[in-house]
Automatic annotation (TrEMBL):
Family: Belongs to the alpha-IPM synthase/homocitrate synthase family. LeuA type 1 subfamily.
Source organism of this protein record: Pseudolactococcus insecticola
Gene3D superfamilies: 1.10.238.260, 3.30.160.270, Aldolase class I
Assembly and binders: Homodimer.
Name used for this protein in its record: 2-isopropylmalate synthase
Binding site for Mn(2+): 13, 201, 203, 237
Functional pathway: Amino-acid biosynthesis; L-leucine biosynthesis; L-leucine from 3-methyl-2-oxobutanoate: step 1/4
Annotated spans, Regulatory domain: 390-518
Record-level GO cellular component terms: cytoplasm
UniProt keyword Transmembrane helix present: no
This protein's UniProt keywords: Amino-acid biosynthesis, Branched-chain amino acid biosynthesis, Cytoplasm, Leucine biosynthesis, Manganese, Metal-binding, Transferase
Function of the protein: Catalyzes the condensation of the acetyl group of acetyl-CoA with 3-methyl-2-oxobutanoate (2-ketoisovalerate) to form 3-carboxy-3-hydroxy-4-methylpentanoate (2-isopropylmalate).
């Protein structure tokens, strides 16, 4: 069978999702988990976009040992130079150069003629090839590009040294049959004296990203690009976990396989969900909470007799363990460490001490602590909170008029604590008002969601908030995790305010995306 490579762009294209702003620590943590999941290449970011982006790509390049690391670059020499500097310590560095080729993009965005675009491809792919052994080229908005010009652009990039050719469905415009034919056409007509690997990059505007990606594989693609949980701007990208499982379940049809470690899928999805601040919908394919739930009595009866009656994906396949023994309040440090090893969670000795202390606090409140609780505890403790003031404690008092008074304590990196007090019609409103008073910023709450980490009345609460920095119009997502819903809410809102504070201080800068002109 053919082996399909997987390139993950959660840290680049996924971060284009409104409200998603991964910290450098979070990006490194996600990259390490993606390597464990079996990703062949990670598009770690857009080094020229900002100092944060450059640092993240640089740190990931230094960290990964098995996975290729690539940086995005417009057809601009300074972008390619930035990618080179950020990736020079990578074990397997790559660069991804793109320029738009559709009539609407060339006319209104680039303001270039077709001949000028071709000349730019030759110049910049050749320049990238002088710095990198592996160069990927993308004709942006390829699916709205005339077929003959698309072939000309791709052949030009191949002649200039590109070895990977990505055909992006930038606005989610194409259909599976059209995309299949596009790949067949290019593969049959592009000439080269070396192997050229073609890849799809699908957006989900019409709900066909997974179908289009699988059609591209059928049409001869050797690498696919997408994100975890399908995060990305507008309707998002293809969800890589869906393609990976589809290849496994239907390898009889696609005659293709991959190096994806499927039983790391659920952990990978959970981590990206928590750090992006975007909960996974219950009905999401492969990793959603209802993926293995069977409400119909007929379905339940069939599954109990033989899971294959209605269950083509087993929970164990994607890393949801049914028979794993939970921990409890009497579990000691040794059992806790063994559980971390069982879940393949890598932590230092000093981190174990802190995690075990938090585990014992949770165990006093929760009868059974599941694998999901442990993963949430580790993710929430190690990197979830951003630098700066952190939520510490809160107290709540009910007033005779039905309002609530909340006192919130925030602690800085020097362990100094500052308290603020505010009232509200409810406890969450009062807590948020107190946090607003502390940060003294103009922030508008756009959404507030509570998700139970596990089933049962004693489940940990994971709160997701979306806020707008009113002064800039920037959207930020953040999450908080705690056994207590009010504390989880305060942690999430504090984290969101920290992101706004970092933007106002110039630490988080404007993102540069594919939509920006060259």
């Amino acid at each position: 069978m053919r082996k399909i490579e997987f390139l993950d762009t959660s840290l680049r294209d996924g971060e284009q999702t409104p409200g998603v702003n991964f910290s450098v620590k979070e990006k490194v943590a996600i990259a390490k988990q993606l390597e464990k999941w079996g990703i062949s290449a990670i598009e770690a970011g857009f080094p020229a976009a900002s100092p944060d982006s450059f640092e993240a790509v640089q740190q990931i390049a230094k960290t990964l040992t098995k996975t290729a690391v690539t940086g995005l670059a417009r057809a601009v020499k300074s972008d390619i130079d930035a990618a080179y500097e950020a990736l020079k310590d990578a074990k397997f560095p790559q660069v991804h150069v793109f320029i738009a080729t559709s009539p609407v993009h060339m006319t209104y965005k680039l303001k270039k003629t077709p001949d000028e675009v071709i000349a730019s491809i030759t110049e910049h792919v050749s320049y990238a090839k002088s710095l990198f052994d592996v160069v990927e080229f993308s004709p942006e908005d390829a699916t709205r590009t005339e077929k003959d010009f698309l072939l000309r652009a791709v052949q030009t990039a191949v002649d200039a040294g590109a070895t990977y050719i990505n055909i992006p469905d930038t606005v989610g415009f194409t259909t599976p049959s059209e995309y299949y034919e596009t790949f067949k056409f290019l593969i049959e007509n592009v000439t080269s004296d070396r192997e050229i690997i073609f890849s799809p990059h699908c957006h989900d505007d019409l709900g066909m990203a997974t179908a289009n990606t699988l059609a591209a594989i059928k049409g001869g693609a050797g690498r696919i690009e997408g994100t975890i949980n399908g995060i990305g701007e507008r309707a998002g990208n293809v969800a890589l976990e869906e393609v990976a499982v589809a290849l496994e379940i239907r390898k009889d049809y696609y005659q293709a396989t991959s190096d994806i470690v499927l039983n790391e899928t659920f952990t990978t999805s959970e981590l990206v969900s928590r750090f992006s601040g975007i909960p996974v919908p219950k009905n999401k394919a492969v990793v959603g909470g209802n993926a293995f739930a069977h409400e119909s009595g007929i379905h339940q009866d069939g599954v109990l007799k033989n899971p294959e009656t209605y269950e083509i994906i087993t929970p164990e396949m994607v890393g949801v363990k049914k028979n794993s023994l939970p921990l409890g309040k009497l579990s000691g440090r040794h059992a806790f460490v063994e559980k971390l090893h069982e879940l393949d969670i890598e932590v230092t000795d000093s981190e174990v001490q802190d995690l075990f202390a938090k585990f014992k606090i949770l165990a006093d409140k929760k009868h059974e602590i599941t694998d999901t609780d442990i993963r949430a505890l580790v993710a929430g403790t190690t990197v979830e909170n951003h630098e700066g003031f952190q939520f510490d404690t809160l107290t709540i008092a009910s007033n005779l008029d039905g309002t609530q008074t909340v006192t919130v304590a925030m602690r800085n990196v020097d362990n100094e604590s500052i308290e603020t007090i505010a009232n509200g019609s409810g406890s969450v409103e009062a807590a948020f008002n107190a946090i607003d008073k502390f940060f003294n910023q103009t922030v508008k709450l756009e959404s507030y969601t509570i998700v139970a980490v596990t089933d049962g009345i004693d489940a940990q609460a994971e709160v997701h908030v979306t806020v707008e920095n009113v002064d800039t119009g920037t959207i930020f997502n953040a999450s908080g995790l705690d056994f207590d819903v009010l504390r989880a809410s305060a942690i999430a809102y504090s984290n969101a305010n920290t992101l706004v504070q970092r933007e106002n201080a110039g630490i988080i800068t404007k993102k540069i995306s594919e939509k920006d002109t060259i």
